[in-house]
């Protein structure tokens, strides 16, 4: 699959169901998946971070810093 080509729904579903893409059953790690926030293992529970995607990790770190900043500086 080329970089610009989007994966099919069947491919996304295959990646999501593959237990090798879930570290410790909760951390999603798939180098082929370029989505920043893929659905959690239980899809209705929201989204998770793809720890194999550097942009996804950056978004996670920025959001975490913003939340910590709001908690400490809101007083």
Descriptive report:
By secondary structure, the protein is mainly alpha-helical. The protein has two helices and two strands; from the N terminus they run H-E-E-H. It has a two-stranded antiparallel sheet with strand order 1-2. The mean pLDDT is 91.
Summarize the structure.
With 75 residues, the protein is mainly alpha-helical.
Essential attributes:
2 helices, elongated, two-stranded antiparallel sheet, mainly alpha, 39% helix, 75 residues
Average pLDDT rating: 91
- The total count of helices amounts to 2
For the termini, the CA-CA separation is 50 Å
Order of helices and strands: HEEH
Unreliable segments of 5+ consecutive residues: none
Chain-wise SSE layout:
Blueprint: H1 9-17, E1 22-23, E2 27-28, H2 54-73
